[in-house]
Amino acid sequence: MIEIIGVITGALIIVFGILAVESKKLINSVVYLSLLSLLSVLSFIIMKAPDVAITEAVIGSGLVTFLFIITLMQDKKAGDKK
Amino acid sequence: MKKIIAILLTVAVALFVFTNLYSGDSDFKAFGEKSLEETVSKEFVNKTVDPQRVQPETGSANIVTSIVVNYRGFDTMGEVTVLFVSALGVALLGGVLRKKVTFRYKPGFIINQGMKIIVGIILISGIYIFVHGHLTPGGGFPGGAMIGSAFLLMYLSDDKFRTRIAAFKVLEGLAGSLIMIVGLVGLSTGGYFLYNFLPNGEIGQLLSAGIVPVLYVLVGLKVGSEVSNILGDFFIGEVEE
Question: pTM here?
């Protein structure tokens, strides 16, 4: 059972990695990256590394995603007013 | 065409790595099949779970913490220094920018009110994680980052809250110097830097494992105030004259 979950998680990580690279809009890339981090938290728990899982959950899918989204909200397009 | 080449290259590298790793004479076992008898981690595990010993050498219930903060405490101090240098870099960049960052995005009512409920919970769980670092998974770095993310939420949800909190600079410096002082006290009493000079206590209690909880609380406070400082510099982008 746990092996099946591990294999599914690994496959989904690869799929989300490809989607994060290939998606057209940057904000979608950030969301896929966050999902990738979330799934890697799951796989760290399956591999019995809860310390790493907590760090990944806080930094990978929390802090980094927030920072990326804020930065994307900040940038201006070439023709934008103000 | 480019994509096909990229996929072919990826598959080729993956095949090369896997065939070499899992070939007959390789030392690399599948996950879960490597025996701990041949690795250095056996020593660390034995020091913690040996039935002959009255209690573990470090007194810490969490083996990972006993390695990170006790046996390799000097490494952890180096990591904290790396974070300090990056905070310094962001502060310098903010000084170069000299311009207040204006948000195009206005926080709505729901995020503003929801923040007031949720921030306390995030702060408390962050503090819980680094106070119980020697008993449960987690420790100073995730706990501190959690405190930092609570302050990120405050910066995001409230327009008025965009002031730099001066106490964080003091707290960061204080925690950093206290880590050094704990190390130096160990040097003078035990002969090693970061020597465990406090009694180990009873395993599983909150006040046990010698200097491990002390160091982890200091590391957590330092990381938390450091991350909040970085975010403050990032948002305000201005040095007060």
Answer: 0.76
